[in-house]
Structures are given as structure tokens and as C-alpha cells.
Design a protein that fits this description.
With about 120 residues, the protein is an all-alpha fold. The chain has five helices and no strands. The longest helix is centred in the middle third of the chain and has 26 residues. It starts with 18 loop residues before the first helix and ends with a helix.
């Protein structure tokens, strides 16, 4: 998800990972998906080998949380990759400019007291 050009992140230890797998991960397109699949496979293998004896409801909750995490990553990618429409940005800028200029003028014109005009300018 990181948009930095230097994607060399510090990790704890990669000695237990096969060099082919590291190369595949380095050259892969969607590394988050690959790591998610690896983690899910490791969990299933550990449960099958009875290394991690866990009940089925807890195991399903683990997979549910992993799924929610990858969905959140996809949502962040959508926000980061889809540009904000330029005409909409320009329209919002103009509307804010008009409000900034016109609000003090209209409150000063329609209120009898300068104190009320000052107060309503910051409320509106």
C-alpha cells in the first residue's frame, strides 16, 4: 500500500523464507495478497499438523479478521489510486471563496449590531 519508491522495509527475520519465495514476492504485483495467502496456508498447515490446536469458531474468526484487513487495504488503495475530480475541486474552492467573502458582508448588512455581525460571521 505504501506509495514510496524505496520499498525496502525492515523485517524481523527472513532466514526461514525460501529465496525463490522472496524473489517471487519481490517481483510480484500484489504482495499483500501473496503474503495473505502464505499466512492462511501456514495457519491451515499448523492446524492440520496439530501444532496449533484451536477450535473451529476461533479459527473462522482468525480468517474473518484477515479478510477484514485485506478489505481495508483494498479500500485504502481505492482512495490512494483514484484521483479526486479536478472540476469538483475547483467548484469547492470557488464556493468556499464566495462564502469567505460574502458571509461577513451579508451578516454586517442584515444585523443591527456589529457584535452580532461578528458573532454570526463565525457561527455561519
Amino acid at each position: 500500500v505504501a506509495l514510496i519508491t524505496d520499498d525496502k522495509m525492515e523485517i524481523i527475520d527472513n532466514e526461514g523464507i525460501d529465496p525463490k519465495a522472496l524473489n517471487f514476492l519481490r517481483t510480484g504485483v500484489d504482495r499483500c495478497e501473496v503474503v495473505l495467502q502464505w499466512v492462511q496456508r501456514l495457519i491451515i498447515n499448523a492446524v492440520d499438523a496439530e501444532v496449533v490446536p484451536v477450535a473451529a469458531p476461533i479459527l473462522s474468526r482468525v480468517f474473518q479478521e484477515l479478510s477484514r484487513g485485506i478489505v481495508n487495504i483494498h479500500n485504502v488503495r481505492k482512495i490512494a489510486e483514484i484521483p479526486f475530480p479536478f472540476p469538483y475541486t475547483q467548484m469547492l474552492t470557488m464556493m468556499l471563496l464566495f462564502q469567505t467573502v460574502l458571509t461577513p458582508l451579508l451578516t454586517a448588512a442584515f444585523t443591527p449590531s456589529p457584535i452580532w455581525a461578528f458573532t454570526l460571521t463565525f457561527i455561519v
